[in-house]
Specification:
305 residues, alpha/beta, Rossmann fold, eight-stranded mixed beta sheet, 10 helices, globular
């Protein structure tokens, strides 16, 4: 099966910069026509210009992701410019990192509105179009390690990204008969956000200077550039991934992985049900050894002198 996307049309939300721009450019390089979306007109146009300079085809839609009106506008733009929509990459997002007790209602609502509701409304609009068109399609949602493991200071972001993966698994079931494959990716890359993390400041600066990244960064920390993540999006958008659906797939640097669905790790029964005292007695012997860690654990980053 081919990863050639010639004749396909894609929408990539939040593609004015960073990972979203890399996805849009990679899809275009594989032959797809792309609707570029961002809230910043200048950034969106820069992505369009980069695609057209490379011989591709792209148009820009400047609008915030989240409202149903934006989702409908994006699908309509693909239909008007390219005759239909084959691929949606729901990438748009914002960060408002705060400890729980400092997170405001406005912080939480903005992050959930963009990441979670934005993925929902755009995927719903795409699904309606793809089902009516009857030619199948691809929907790629963007998760995060924070959504898989939890992360300090990221209440809203982790909640939204966990929800994104749950929606992908659910929609893979609902859209299977329509031939629409739905997957989530869990990317890690050096971006403007990564550069703000103190331990990665020097790594990000070296990357910006065009220096090769050490093996420990690319392999153990799964950090490369956005261009290292984009091939997974191209593959998921292509015929080569036919039948792959409902998956959460991690990629970054030299690392490619697949995440499991949560499973029951230990089970026991008590005739007549459980009391609090009975649970207290059972936990140490049956369940304590299976207690799961929270948080993202990374190996040491020793770059030498």
């Amino acid at each position: 099966m081919s990863t050639d996307l010639t004749g396909k049309a894609a929408v990539v939300t939040g593609s004015g910069q960073g990972l979203g721009r890399a996805y849009a450019r990679a899809l275009a390089a594989a032959g797809a026509s792309v609707v570029v979306n961002d809230v910043d007109a200048g950034s969106a146009q820069q992505t369009v210009d980069a695609i057209t300079a490379d011989g591709g085809s792209a148009v820009a839609v400047v609008a915030p992701v989240g409202p149903t009106e934006t989702a409908d506008l994006l699908v309509a733009a693909a239909v008007e410019a390219f005759g239909g929509l084959d691929v949606l990459v729901a990438n748009a997002g914002v960060l408002r990192d705060r400890m729980l007790w400092k997170t405001t209602d406005e912080d939480f609502d903005l992050v959930v509105q963009t990441h979670l509701r934005g993925a929902f409304t755009t995927a719903r609009a795409a699904a309606v179009h793809m089902r009516d068109r009857g030619e199948g399609g691809r929907i790629v949602l963007v998760g995060s390690p924070a959504g898989q493991h939890g992360n300090i200071g990221q209440t809203s972001y982790a909640a939204a990204k966990a929800g994104v993966v749950a929606m992908a698994r659910t929609w893979s079931l609902e859209l299977a008969r329509a031939g629409v494959m739905v997957n989530a990716i869990v990317p890690t890359a050096i971006t403007a956000m990564t550069a703000t993390i103190p331990v990665y400041a020097d790594v990000a600066a070296a990357y910006d200077r065009g220096e090769p990244l050490p093996r420990v960064v690319r392999r153990d920390h799964a950090l490369g550039g956005p261009e290292d993540v984009a091939p997974l999006v191209v593959w998921l958008a292509s015929d080569a991934s036919a039948g792959v659906t409902g998956q959460a797939i991690g990629i970054g640097g030299d690392k490619l992985s697949v995440y499991s669905v949560p499973q029951e790790l230990a089970v026991t029964y008590r005739e007549g049900g459980w009391t609090a005292d009975a649970i207290a007695a059972q936990w140490p012997t049956t369940f304590a050894a299976h207690a799961q860690p929270s948080g993202i654990t990374l190996p040491p980053l020793d770059l030498g002198d």
